[in-house]
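Progress report, Aim 2. The chain analyzed during this reporting quarter is listed below.
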Amino acid sequence: MSHSNQSIYASSNAAEICGTAASWQEKADRLTVELSNTRDRLQAEIDRLKQDNQTLHAAVSCAPIFLWATDKDGRLTLAAGKGLENLGLEPGEAVGESIFAVYSQPEILENIAQVIAGNDRTWNTRQGTFIHEIRSAPLLHANGEVVGAVGVSTDITERERAMTTLSLSNQELEDKLTLQTAVSNAALAESEKKYRNLVETSQELIWSIDIQGILTFVNSAAKRIYGYEPLEMIGRRFADFLIKEEKARQIEIFAQLLARTSLQPQTPNLPYEIVHIRKDGTPVHLRVNSIVNQAENGAILGLCGTATDISDRKRSEEALQEATDQLRAVLDAVPGLISWVSSDLRYIGVNQHLATSFKRSPESFVGEEINFLDKGSTFGQLIRNFFHSSCQQTSQEIDIEINGLACNYLIVAQKYHQGTAAVSVGIDITERKRAEAQKSQLIVSLQESECKFRSLYEATSDAVMLIEEDNFFDCNLATLAIFGCSNQEQFYGKKPSEFSPEFQPNGQDSCSLATQKISAAMETGSCRFDWVHKRLDDSEFPAEVLLNAMEINGRKIIQAVVRDITDRKRDEDRIKASLAEKEVLLKEIHHRVKNNLQVISSLLKLQSRYIQDSRVSEMLKESQNRVRSMAMVHEQLYQSKDLSNIDFAEYIQNLAHNLFQAYEIHTEGVKLQTNIAPCSMNIDTAVPCGLIINELVTNSLKYAFTGQTQGKIKIDFTLDNNRVCVLAVSDSGIGFPPDLDYRNARTLGLRLVGSLVKQIRGKIELLETAGTNFKITFSKQNSTSRRQLNVK
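Predicted structure tokens for the chain:
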């Protein structure tokens, strides 16, 4: 190698050495830093371990355990824990002692030996009154050699006691459970029986259907609700018993329930109302509850549920709605301001009258403040104070302005809904207020009038007295004079019967008769009668008594007015005597008139015997009949008790029979038929009617049956409630000549009939019937204007 090459080689080795030194220096620095960091971490770990050791020792010292460690000979190298106190040892005192001295039981030797042999052991040992659970494990050296044992002794005295107690309790519980199970099984059987009875006796329909909607069960309530026996319904579709309009809705509800899967949670089905059809075709309203019937694996088997007959409730609801509508109609018709107000002083509702009064609709008041129409209204303050008070009802008169008019109202308010609302009724007392003002004026006037009437009460000559509970308690001065009393004490407190004789003239007992009269006055309001009274000196006098029932301060009072009619009775007796004389005289006059008319009739009859002309003889005979008809009226009058009226039916019967006797040759084969309504007639009407019947029956007897051997004459008389009389005289003869006008006839008989009809203000008609039929209509004359004479 040349020198130059050696130089190059040397230079190259020096550079490599320098580079290597730098690299090692860098590694040394890095290792120094890592070593320093490792030392710091190690020191920190040592500090942590010391802290953990201190913490562990503190925890062990406080824990209710005995932590120990021994060498291979069983001597304690560690003894810590609060459990040493149960063994009567101090922590430092036990170290160095044998574990066999601490636990003197024989099993300690065997168990420690097993642990030294390398086995974990757990056992219980009793030391005095304490029971310890010992858990022990081998203590190993780093090379794996067993150098001792370590263990934890825990005081389980309380736990053992608790376990013993628990065991006893469990045994007792097991015995009770066995007994309870037997009882429960018996109760379950009884409950099942009761459940079956409950299902069958339930008033509600209990039903079940399969997934096709076929009924699989109904209880006996089906008979009451549907009229079907249960067996008649089972096997049919549930929808078969619905009205046509409800089937679609029911099927949809069942479909929604049956469409659920078994994975879906069981959700409650809200009850619904539906209308079914009974066996007799009548509807029945039901409230139905239904749930899904599932198997144990969750598969849907169908539906089951209950149905309640709510037909009565539906009828009640309809009746309630009708009653509500009626009540609303009544409230709207009430002429008062009715409103319902909540406790926050807002309207709940008003009636129609209130809304109309303010020219608004009832709905516009709802929710508004009660004084929204008039902020200064006293009604709002009244209701506000009412809600603030504890009163349930209040009333107050207030002034309200309605449509610009000031009105007075009596407001009556009543709380309801536990005081959270109130109803208010406003009664218009505007007129009453005005009336009260007028009443005040009237009272003054009445007081003045009372003074005047009191003066009249005392000044009247009639006895005026007041009776309460059948006793006199007030009277005027005339009463004392009439009954012969010198002062009021002799009159007050006495009964009416004490001022009467024992019997009245009619023979009735005065006491009982007076009670009857007072009762009659109480019932009818007044009673007037004649009475015989007795004065204090026992003298009697006739009187006219007027009883009037009245009410004074809520008491039923009888006012009696007694008038002494002694003079009037005396005058009446004289008048009756005079009247009896005049009645006898009047009867005698009628008798004489009848006799005179009878004489005239006889003279006419005698005269007719000397007349050869048959026409003149017939005229005399007719005149004789007319006179006889008038005489019969006077004959009946003097034979009757009533001298102003006669029995018209009897009069017509007698008159007709006399005519038949007078025309005996014309009446062969002719029969008389009468239909006379009972009626009394005065002489002013009876005489014209008798002459009319005389003329019409005479014409029928003379002319109606020419050429006939048989016939009938009929007399009808009726009287309706309006006192309209209808007299009809008809015959079955040849009929009235058609060319003869009965109104303008020249014959005396028909002219006389026309005049007599006018005299009684009647109307005559010739009816178009077979034969001849005259109908006379007239009003019965009122005979009360004439003096009626009664013979008693």
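The longest strand covers residues 540-552. DSSP finds 19 helices and 27 strands in the chain. These observations will guide the mutagenesis work planned for the next reporting period.
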